[in-house]
Every structure is written in structure tokens, then in C-alpha cells.
Records
---
Amino acid sequence: MIVLGIAGGTGSGKTTVTGAILEKVNAHTSLLEQDAYYRDMPELSLDERAKVNYDHPDAIEFSLLIQHIKTLKKGLPIAQPIYDFTNHLRKKETTTVKPARILIVEGILIFAIPELRELFDMKIFVDTDDDERLLRRISRDMEERGRSFESVQEQYRKTVKPMHLEFVEPSKRYADVIIPRGGGNNVGIDMVASRLQYLLTL
Ligand SMILES: Nc1ncnc2c1ncn2[C@@H]1O[C@H](COP(=O)(O)OP(=O)(O)O)[C@@H](O)[C@H]1O
Ligand SMILES: Nc1ccn([C@@H]2O[C@H](COP(=O)(O)O)[C@@H](O)[C@H]2O)c(=O)n1
């Protein structure tokens, strides 16, 4: 199994790049999203959950993500959690992810965790300007994650930006390939897809 890590700041285009690679690679591929592994905090009220720092590594159950990658590498399926961003909670249901020739793992902090980092055969960092990422995030969070403009603004200032500078941006140094701009970068996406096709022939 080839394990590909795709990191980058929030709104950088990780999901879009992942989709573009999946379309180009002619092989069965599985996907694990770091976003699915946010810790469940049902003991907190909705207001308290809305104030949690979701951009610090402690907010994510990385031990479970690491365990799931290792299980898939052994050829066994895993039950990936499903996260509800509107209520900041895990759902009761899970998604079964089966092993495949290629495993893509996507998330803002996946290169910031040494034990996780060493599981990747190829590391891609999607590098998009901060202003563009913020504009995308405002639209995405208001349209898809049930957020108000004021809440996105406050969260960005209090936690998203400082954690990006402390954890996400420095993790770029561990990437093998940096894809500027994200989804629209067809040359970068083609190069990654070609490399994957080549690795599949070995
Ligand atoms: N190249 C692009 N141009 C315009 N909008 C984009 C582009 N890439 C992504 N988006 C939009 O920006 C938002 C965030 O993109 P996404 O791929 O989900 O980023 P990430 O997974 O890094 O948070 C989505 O609504 C997506 O449709
Ligand atoms: N309850 C939550 C959990 C996470 N977030 C934000 O999600 C961002 C990461 O997701 P991307 O798809 O943008 O990579 C991260 O920056 C968290 O702030 C949230 O808002 N609420």
C-alpha cells in the first residue's frame, strides 16, 4: 500500500486536490480525513464546544488515526468516525474504509505529528495564500458548517490563525512536494498523479 499525506492550511484546497488526484489515478484508492478524528466532547454544552481550540493537535484523536492507518496497511478494514461540524460532535454511525493500493490521508496537522509523519510514503503540502484561504473558509463555514460570519471571524482571530502559524505552516518543511494555489494547479496535480502511477508499477 502507498500512503500519501496531503496537508495544508484550512481552506487551502486539500479536499479539492485529493479529489483531482483520485480522478487521475487509475487504481483503487482509500481516503482517511483528519477532520473525522476530532475528539467527541458530548459532556460540554454547544456554546462550550463552539469555543474549543480545534486547530491545536490536542483536539484530534491522532492515536486512533495512526492505529487506523496501521490496520489498513495490514490489509484490514477500519470504522472511520463521522464528524458533525454544525454541532461539533461525532455521529453514532461510522464509515467502513477498506484497504486499497493507495491510501490518501488528508488534514491540516498531519505533518506536525512525528509518529504520523513517518507513515507516509509521499507528503504533499497544498500552499495557498492566507487571504484566499480565509475567503474560502468564510463561504464554506457559512454555507456548509452552519456558522455565522461573526463566529468565523472570531474563531479565525483567536485560534485558527495562531495555530496555523505555530503548527501548520512550520510542518511544510516536511513535505516532499509543495503545490501552490491548490485545486487549480493542474501541473502540480498531474505530477503527483504520475508519480503515484509510477509507484504502482514497482
Ligand atoms: N482553486 C479554487 N478556486 C476557488 N475555490 C476553491 C478552489 N479550491 C477550493 N475551493 C473552494 O474552497 C473551499 C475550501 O476548499 P477545500 O478543498 O475544501 O479545502 P480544505 O480541504 O483545504 O479545507 C471549498 O468550498 C472549495 O470549493
Ligand atoms: N468542531 C470543529 C472542528 C474543526 N473546525 C475547523 O475545521 C478546520 C479544519 O478543516 P479543513 O477542512 O478546513 O481543513 C480547522 O481549522 C478547525 O478550525 C471547526 O471549525 N469546528
Note: The chain has a mean pLDDT of 96.
---
Amino acid sequence: MTVDQGPVGQSPAARGPVAASAGDLHKTYGSGENRVRALDGVDIAFRQGEFTAIMGPSGSGKSTLMHCVAGLDSFTSGSVRIGTTELGRLDDRQLTELRRDRIGFVFQAFHLLPTLTALENITLPLTIAGRRPDRRWLDHVIAMVGLTGRLHHRPGELSGGQQQRVAVARALAARPSIVFADEPTGNLDSRAGAEILGFLRDSVRELGQTVVMVTHDPVAAGYADRAVFLADGRIVDEMVRPSAERVLDRMKDFDARAVTV
Ligand SMILES: Nc1ncnc2c1ncn2[C@@H]1O[C@H](COP(=O)(O)OP(=O)(O)OP(=O)(O)O)[C@@H](O)[C@H]1O
């Protein structure tokens, strides 16, 4: 594996405490002839205050890695930690609580409840957990994503970009240890997508959040502090401070190698 340090050196966050990690992570689906090694020995750490993009061709294991590290899916062997909590040691109830209290999610489909207002959607995970929102934090997050004038609208009265802003605010509302975003701009036009990526980046820069984003899009990866490249369930490359152009070049290299192998 080559680690590209980029023209400006290592990310300042690169030596911070670890927010989440995976060690020698394996995930196999099916058995016999149908056996698929979706993850084949992945070692990775996501540091606090760092924005990581996970990239790779279709079927390379990006979603599987995200789901295993976020406690949404089980793994075959290896270890996953959120902070110092080892996920393999938790029962289902403890895992549910960990996801609710310590992890924020943003999905491609916004997954908002249509009968609730924007504000009610944003605070729903806190309501379910029986926690009072930290009002100052909430106001800050809502202002950051530019929703202050839309809080009493229902999702059907909002544009796609505004709905995804609600989803980003919901992910940040509980001050999670880490936010996982799975193709968060996949359903948006390029302008709305750029806004959402800007908010995710701001949440890292201004709020010290840790964000892990799965994406196919080199432009989206250009917002991250580093891009990690998966192929066949393994990490094959990493780029610090990626730009869209450098990510695109790297992806072309992979495609060329795949053709010549
Ligand atoms: N539930 C499942 N049962 C069997 N195989 C699966 C299942 N989910 C994923 N796989 C397989 O595991 C491998 C990794 O899939 P994964 O969805 O993680 O890839 P990905 O990189 O996220 O792909 P994409 O970019 O297309 O979303 C693929 O070969 C896929 O077919």
C-alpha cells in the first residue's frame, strides 16, 4: 500500500485520539460456492476531528465496512471499536443504545418522518433516548445548516437539499462520537450536494466532529481530510488532503491496472 501524503503534508487531525477503528476485520457472506469475502482483513482508524472518504469500485466493500464499524451489521472476525468500546462484546440492546447515543447517520435517502416537522425530526433521536436537547448546541447546528426559517415545515414542504440538511442536523444533534454518511449527496443535484458536503466539512472544522463518508464521487471526496480506497474487501491506498483531480487520477490508475491484470 502506498500512502500519499499530498502536497501539504499530513492532516493536523491525523494524530488525534481514535474515534472508531477496525482491526483485521473480515466479513463473509454466504457459504460454499456462494461465499463472498466482502471484507478481507481491514485495519483502519478514524481519528477525532477528521473527515474520511471511503472510496472504491462497486462491490469493493465500502458499505459493508461502514455498516460493520457503525454497529449496523455483524462481522465474521476481527474487532471494531467506537472509542474504547469493543462492539463484539455488546448484546443487541447495548448495540442499539450505542448507535442511538454515540453515532449519527446520514443516508442517501433522507429517512425523515413525513408527519413530523423539521425540528421534530432533528430532535427525534434525543426524544427517543429521553434526553433533553442542549439548546445552544442545537441552535448552532440548525444555524450552520441554514434551517432556522424552516423548522416548522414538514419534509414534504422542503426541497431534497433542505431535507438532507435536516438529516445532517439530526445526525449532529446528539453530539455523537462519529457521523457515518452513506452517499449523502446521491439524491441531490450538484449545488445541493455541494452545500451538504460543505456542512459536513464545517461540522468537522467548526464543531470538531468526526465524519466518515462512503462515496463514488471524486468531487465529494475532495471535501475530506483523507480518502481511503478499497478493492476486493481490502484497503489498497490512502490519500491525505485529496483533491477531486487527484482522486480521479488515482481511480483511473486503478481502472488501468484492473484492465492489465
Ligand atoms: N447481504 C448480502 N449477501 C450476500 N452478499 C452481499 C450482501 N451484501 C453485500 N454483499 C456482497 O459483498 C460485497 C461488498 O458489497 P458492498 O455493498 O459492501 O460494496 P460497495 O463497495 O458498497 O458497493 P456499491 O458501491 O455498489 O454500493 C459485494 O460483492 C456484494 O455483492
Note: The chain has one domain: 13-260.
